[in-house]
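Dissemination and training. As part of the outreach component of the grant, students in the summer workshop were shown how a complex can be specified as a set of sequence lines and then modelled as a single object. The example used during the hands-on session is reproduced here so that future cohorts can follow it. Participants entered these lines:
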Amino acid sequence: MSSQRVVILGGGFAGVYTAMKLERLLRKRQDVEVVLVNRENYLVFQPMLAEVISGNIGLLDTVSPICRLAPSTRLYEREVEDVDLANQTVTLSPGFEANATVLHYDHVVVAFGNVTDFRKIPGLHDHAFPFKYLGDALRLRDHLIRVLGEAATTTDPELRKELLTFVIGGGGFSGVEVCAELNDFVRRAGKKYFHINPNDIRTVLVHSEDRILEREMPERLGRYAQELLRKRGVEFIFNLRLETGTPKCAVLHDGQRIPTRTLISSVPSSPNPIVAGLDVPQERGRIKADSKLQIEGFENAWSLGDCAAVPNPSGEGVCPPTAQFAIRQATTCAHNIVAAIDGQKQKNFRFKELGKMASLGHRRAIAQLFGWIHLGGFLAWLFWRAAYWAKLPGIDRKIKVGVSWMLDLVCGPEIVQTKVDVKPAMSESHFEPGEIVLHKADRADRLFIILNGKAELSYGDENGEAAKSVELTAGDVFGVAEILEKTSVQANVRCIEPLTVVTYNKSELEPLLALPAVRTCFEQLR
Amino acid sequence: MSSQRVVILGGGFAGVYTAMKLERLLRKRQDVEVVLVNRENYLVFQPMLAEVISGNIGLLDTVSPICRLAPSTRLYEREVEDVDLANQTVTLSPGFEANATVLHYDHVVVAFGNVTDFRKIPGLHDHAFPFKYLGDALRLRDHLIRVLGEAATTTDPELRKELLTFVIGGGGFSGVEVCAELNDFVRRAGKKYFHINPNDIRTVLVHSEDRILEREMPERLGRYAQELLRKRGVEFIFNLRLETGTPKCAVLHDGQRIPTRTLISSVPSSPNPIVAGLDVPQERGRIKADSKLQIEGFENAWSLGDCAAVPNPSGEGVCPPTAQFAIRQATTCAHNIVAAIDGQKQKNFRFKELGKMASLGHRRAIAQLFGWIHLGGFLAWLFWRAAYWAKLPGIDRKIKVGVSWMLDLVCGPEIVQTKVDVKPAMSESHFEPGEIVLHKADRADRLFIILNGKAELSYGDENGEAAKSVELTAGDVFGVAEILEKTSVQANVRCIEPLTVVTYNKSELEPLLALPAVRTCFEQLR
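and obtained this result:
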């Protein structure tokens, strides 16, 4: 029996709900196989992800395994490497095999969402925490606990100040929710450390407009949120963008630097690179789909969710990138795919937005319902919880989240690190003029390659006398001699023009340096 | 005011309980500072760690933050790099500073415990999962979910078999508990995957004796546990040790190979390398401490817990490495330190073991109490839970674990990955004779350096005709040409003598290879 294969790319609300609706429509039919490809095996319930920081809910409670939501869908937990619309194939990164998997499709659904992509801004890419997946939330949480622990033990007052300053870029939904939860968490957890003075903690939100949530929410609610956060100790810097970051500070658009070891950027969400590479009509990085959710010019290619520009049924522009729209689009898309397979009539996408909400942490939220009801405070927070609780997929998840919320009323914050993170062998770092890249007499454990920018290496003694200095530019390498000779750092290196370097850890380079030919080569590099 | 500093090294039961007892004895006294150094900021409640695999309890429920247990102790979350007993200093790895921290002490407590150390067995070090910290448990959990997901999608029957085979080495407490929980989890979770046949799942426990728990438990209880696990689908291989591992199989002492992608070793726990390097009397890798817990020959150095050989108060040999003994030793140790500071009389360690227990997963356990009560089954399991629940530190933790256990009765297993793990840029791999290290036509994404052993590189075509082969040994490099020229793998590489290689990922090497001098060097390496 020849069967048809529907391949869904992306496991956000758009993709997973398309699979769920398809399963429902195709029940008992063996002639259509549904395949879903996602880099995670779970659907992230984004509105609650910020609560992972404070541990208000269990670490796994914000996500739902896709294979339980859509049990007869074949799930590939892989990266999509290529989509070939002409030949109707998608290429997936290798799993345990050595080679890529190529899947033929009869219908393809492109639902990648967008990605947090700082690649265009070197400093943010290297030093800002993204906040999109469960892994991001856990990494940030671990980092917060680590800086609190270090702040409690360090004897250096400058370092303590940097460690206790937290900077968030972006005052949209995501930035505000992360800021609220982070601020609650560090202030509550800070109290558990005998050696931390809670008044030393600073949380700073940087936003390019003159108030937060200016596009997302009516002014009154935005102002309410702002005042609430301010009372809880959040500082606001308005009318300035977060420009870049370095290992030790956040740099604003006007050049101002805020010394910090924790920088979170919620701003630039870019189109998925695979979407950008597709030869289909696009609108500001989103795939142009019609009201049937078909990609313009293709009979068997569909697109929905955040990565698609679907005409808004209200008549104004395109649908906003929210879960509400994605879920309703999924219903239409699944119906239309089955209709296409069976030669039936297709439907147009219709939906009117119900409302918008944002949690402000610790029992406060704001909500705009049906366009005209404005709520702020405890009631809105109860409504927020009730609404999202109702939307949580699966009864198990509902029970667990409900219980976690109740426990949170009696138990303190969790300040345990999962510490699953590995220090990467190679990383990029960004520095701004005047910053010290490498200190004389420090432990020598890294090798640096300059990708771009300029630095000055100086051998001078501490009194500044008889200083010998060398200018370093792209392609120059430093830190080699110290690694080869196992000494401490022999010179100061200072950034003189915005600098991007690649660093390798000594321990990971050692097997390479043990090869005589490579060692000789590196000896000549310095 | 001159104050004294007590530095405790290690945050297991021994170290943390010493800090807790010291805080209690020193209440209101400002003249003694207590410092604790540990690589994690939490105490692992080891007996429950195995439950993290199945998600019976919340991911953080097995651990307790040290700064809540011992709130006025200064906690350094660092590695100990050196202990200098002559100069009374300890050196800690750098935190956010560039250099190591050196602490002077008046009293030092060495309570490192032991470490899971496979370094002497290359294959196990590279390919077996350790199981000691929370991070280990989470990594194993993620891996299990990943292999189930891949098994559900792969079309290669050999690979599916490897993915669904799980091998555990060691039939002591830890091996048996991990085996029981893992077996429960993969069989329960496997049912959630539409495309996995639960009968294809194999769990194999390899043990060097002729029955499990032969040293830890009376024969009757050991046999009971064994039969229970056998009924739940565990296979046993007795009288054979796990010899080594490769990326695709477990190798037993008699040369037998079990194809698997999941190898867990609970066997070799070695002394901490810092302990091994200390110039103090030792007994089988444990520091010789007297019944006052003082290290022989030192007035201000103490040792207890798993890393110390303390005379057993029963008169027979030394204390076993269990939490029961560590906790009671901590009370004596804290008392004696305060007595030493105040010039009071010190006490001898006295304690009689209460009993032993092991959980067998899914509502069964075995227990030996006061030496003569033997329990096996549901009652022992209830007792196990009650006993450990009572021992859980802190009321918050007690509530959360209690609730998790209740929820587990109604909710299914959690099959969500935290996926915080990063693929390391550099790793070591071990291969056994006959295994293929690199397949012709595979994706070329790694560079290999041979550390020891022998391999054969052959360019021959697929019919075996006109095959040209080269022997590779220690210091030889392969995979370079393919990376430089961006082609797929051009030759087969087969292991001919047990082989250990270092592999570097292409993507992490690229910035280095972009340097002309390094590129030239690598071009000559191939």
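Residues 160 and 500 of chain B are 26 Å apart (CA to CA). Students were then asked to discuss how this feature might be tested experimentally.
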